[in-house]
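Table 4 source record.
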Amino acid sequence: MDNELLIQTEGLTRHYGPHVAVAGLELSLAKGEVLGLLGPNGAGKSSTMQMLTGNLAPSAGRILIDGIDLIDEPLKAKRLIGYLPEQPPVHRDLTVDEYLRFAARLHGLPAREVKTAVERAKTRCGLGDVGGRLIGNLSKGYQQRVGIAQAIVHAPMVVVLDEPTVGLDPIQIREIRALIRELGQEHGVILSTHILPEVQAVCDRVQIINRGRTVFADTLAGLADRHAAPVLMAGLAHAPAIDELRGIEGVSAVEPLPEGRFRITHAEEAGFAERLAALAAERGWGLCELTPERVTLEQIFTDLVYRERVEAAA
């Protein structure tokens, strides 16, 4: 991944009357990176996306697009951004070619460059065979491709995609995800979604926001490591009584599972797994499995959001 910063915010804030939708949000995006922006309904994702793309003025804070202040130089900064809203802004009564030519001119491309830019965007989005067809006659998957094509037709540095696979069938979803991964190799991409498997499939890094603030920001691997629960999955050929397992020093809970397996929650302790393995050998339990349980992104997301709600209510 390139270290070149394409987006950087400083204290990004948005008020709607007395309601604070976004509160001092810090966000960054590097070239060659796909950032997943996650949050429950009402977390401030939509307001953040609209501010990053220049469609909503922040109440406070700065947004830098490749070092250009979006507030001070909006036209210059917006030329570096491609945006696909949740509802693709396609004109159903135009053909794909007509619409993409229109989008290219809106993005300020000189007339001599429009044809090449449109063909390039169509090729990248798999639209080469449908250029002469009315957008309204295309499937939802192809209309979504047209929406992405208009976002990249001017070769922006930053591509912002809001729920790009909503309403698509599994094959269309797979194709759009592959396209997003490809875009992430040459651009910086921000993907806003509530579909957690989508984040795991295409993103390099995740930022979870709740109540307008960042509650976590890290790579997917780093996020899982920091929130790995101290749980071991143990398989025993000659399992003892469950009370014997519960009586092991450091064990806080034991959940019996089918086929001689147990989910053992324990205190944070270096070498606990080795101590349990030695104990199983000493007592003849026939240890055949001992693996740490890795929490899912869904579990992490739910835990962070729930913890925030509990703390806010306290």
